[in-house]
Amino acid sequence: MKRHAFSAAAFSGALLGAAMFSSPVMAQEEFITIGTGGQTGVYYVVGQSVCRLVNRLEDANIKCNAPSTGGSVANINGIKSGELDMGVVQSDVQYQAYNGTGNFEDEPYEELRAVFRVHGEPLTLLARADAGIETLDDLEGKRVNIGNPGSGQRNTMEVVMEAKGWTEDTFSLASQLDAAEQAAALADNNVDAMVYVVGHPNGSIQEATTTVDARLIPLNGEAIDGIVEEHPYYSKSVIPGGLYKGNPDDVDTFGVAATFVSDADTSEEVVYQTVKAIFDNFDRFKRLHPAFENLDPQEMVTSGLSAPLHEGAARYYREQGWIE
Ligand code: GLU
């Protein structure tokens, strides 16, 4: 594939060499890489699930892999540099990157392309039960993991901090641990609270709530209302009660959606085959994670997207009659 010309050519050269001695020349394989997130999040499962379906395609000859990454912002940067072909990113990050706002101020990424929307992702604040945190305001003076640079939660937490007039000095510690390290840090009492923009249920919150007594904290009040009113890509949401030990009640918060994105330069055929692999096998895809349970194909391709649809995706959706 064009954006991986060097490594793909070297690899297919080796394949060709092997083929000369063993079997008839095979059609050239395309290698694609999908950016995900931490291994205990949902993006990693999304990426692995998509690759599993793509790698089963008999005629397409695509080899897909989906490594763990730093999250949404790291995925945008990886797609932009050509290191990744596709990736999962939060809808707020997609909007900001495409339009050049927020952390992408004055650098609109015009070649960014939307592929489809996936599950909802509430901003999830989890605190140790012994930390004396019952509301967002109680985070002042506490040890909070505000997320690794490159993650979507860090990006969204910065929006919350700005709305509250907070800086990192508001907390006694503002740590920047990766998503997959947060649960252990909470359990080991190295932090009082962690934030994660993530689908539910997920492995990280499960890990935290089974190793330490911890509570999901509601996010509401004036600052949160303002954020939701001001930005079209944020909406109020609820983390259902009963998903995690010690958290029987629904918790109000706000959130975004996870979206699948690519670059206008990524091959139309590869993106077409990728969405075809998913939507032709949609029941199987949905069973791969409980957060996918309520997904509806037509809604996934028509709402929650800011960048234009990738041409390869649009071709498949037109064939299905989902878009004009
Ligand atoms: N929303 C997170 C991020 O953008 C990742 C969540 C996940 O891995 O499921 O970094």
UniProtKB/TrEMBL annotation:
Superkingdom of origin organism: Bacteria
UniProt cross-references to InterPro entries, sorted A to Z: TRAP_TAXI (IPR011852)
A Pfam family hit: NMT1_3
Keyword Signal: yes
CDD domains documented for this protein: PBP2_TAXI_TRAP_like_3
Keyword Protein biosynthesis recorded: no
Signal sequence region: 1-27
Key words of the record: Signal
Name this protein carries in UniProt: TAXI family TRAP transporter solute-binding subunit
High-level lineage: Bacteria, Pseudomonadati, Pseudomonadota, Gammaproteobacteria, Oceanospirillales
